[in-house]
Amino acid sequence: MAEKEISQAVIGRLPRYFRFLGELKDEGVERISSQELSGIMNVTASQIRQDFNNFGGFGQQGYGYNVEYLYQEIGRILGLDKTHHLIIVGAGNLGQALANYMNFERRGFIFTGVFDNNPALYGRKIRGIEVRPMEEVADFVEQNNVDIAVLTIPKNSAEEVAERLVSVGIKAIWNFAHVDLKVPKEVQVENVHLSDSLMKLSYMLERYEKESRETNE
């Protein structure tokens, strides 16, 4: 039987559920209703129930949700019950910042290598990880069971580098280069355009200020 197709909107909310449930778990909360979770997350209770019903529901009528169980199940759905090995391609400021962000490891994302094409960076260590030349990436991916690559490089070289990474066995790419990559359908890509996010924030700010002006007229 084919697996149910889940909308991108639902998938996009799963990490938020996981994060908030983790905070509730740390606070010692054992049980929560969809209404209570709605108040915390600013998502309607109906939407929460619909989202969870895509995966079987998880709750009991009149009881609500067991926080620990729901946290573990959403983590499993997100693939966080296993370890992922990552490499960073691009040892500039953004690449270094990501490598130094310890919270990734708490979620099972382990940075194992950093690569760059700038000889001046070779041998430099970022949180104990030595920057290596791109010529070594194929052997490194194979020997270290790497499944995810993080691209923090200029867009003019991103397509070529992505093709190379796919050819050596990378299965997923977290792409910070300002270009939408074209890869085989079996390779998963998450494009992160920081300027797009900032422009969205600018739009929301402009909209709020416009509404405020109209209200005060």
From TrEMBL:
For this record, the Gene Ontology CC terms, alphabetical, are:
cytoplasm
- The CoA-binding domain extends over 79-180
Q: Which Gene3D superfamilies match?
A: NAD(P)-binding Rossmann-like Domain, Winged helix-like DNA-binding domain superfamily/Winged helix DNA-binding domain
The UniProt annotation places NAD(+) binding at G90, A91, G92, N93, L94, G95
Give the transmembrane region(s). Answer: none
Q: Where in the cell is it found?
A: Cytoplasm
Give the SUPFAM superfamilies listed for this entry: NAD(P)-binding Rossmann-fold domains (SSF51735), Winged helix' DNA-binding domain (SSF46785)
**Listed Pfam families:** CoA_binding, Put_DNA-bind_N
DNA-binding region coordinates: 16-55
- Swiss-Prot/TrEMBL keywords: Cytoplasm, DNA-binding, NAD, Repressor, Transcription, Transcription regulation
Among InterPro entries, the record links this protein to: CoA-bd, NAD(P)-bd_dom_sf, Rex_actinobacterial-type, Rex_DNA-bd_C_dom, Tscrpt_rep_Rex, WH-like_DNA-bd_sf, WH_DNA-bd_sf
A single GO molecular-function term is: DNA binding
Q: Give the GO biological process terms.
A: negative regulation of DNA-templated transcription; response to redox state
User: Subunit arrangement?
Assistant: Homodimer.
The family this protein is said to belong to: Belongs to the transcriptional regulatory Rex family.
Function field? Modulates transcription in response to changes in cellular NADH/NAD(+) redox state.
- State the name under which the record lists this protein: Redox-sensing transcriptional repressor Rex
Q: Look up and give the organism this protein is from.
A: Gallintestinimicrobium propionicum
